[in-house]
Amino acid sequence: MSEDWNTKYGTRRVRRDPPTLDEAIFAAIGITDDQEAQAEIAASLMGLPIESVQSEVKKAGRTAARSSTRVIAGEQGAQRSVVVERRVIRRFGNDKRTGT
């Protein structure tokens, strides 16, 4: 699916692709936890009937439930949490020093 329009620099074209079923289900899972609502959201994004999407949403829900929890076992099987933080370093353009 593409759309063309004319500009002063010539014809421009933008390609627009609908999401795949997996992408639509992933987006629906991020919005709500209810599987019926997920099927409705994914079906509306894809333009498909809800019945054809419900089975795929259930499959994705089962796999997400299995892999959503990760536990790292420490000494003697004790569970501990791991927190990963991203440190943002801001650099400004006037921080550069010359060789003088």
Largest sheet: spatial strand order: 1-2
- The topology string of helices and strands comes to EEHHHEE
| Main β sheet profile | 2 strands, antiparallel
Total domains, how many? 1
> What gross morphology would you assign?
flat
- pLDDT averaged over residues: 77
What does this structure look like?
This protein has helices spanning 21-31, 35-46, 50-67, and strands at 2-7, 10-15, 72-73, 79-80. The chain has 100 residues and is an alpha+beta fold. A hairpin with a 5-residue loop joins strand 3 (72-73) and strand 4 (79-80). The chain is flat and about 55 Å long. The chain starts with a strand and ends in a 20-residue tail after the last strand.
List the helices and strands and how they pair.
Blueprint: E1 2-7, E2 10-15, H1 21-31, H2 35-46, H3 50-67, E3 72-73, E4 79-80
Antiparallel strand pairs: 1-2, 3-4
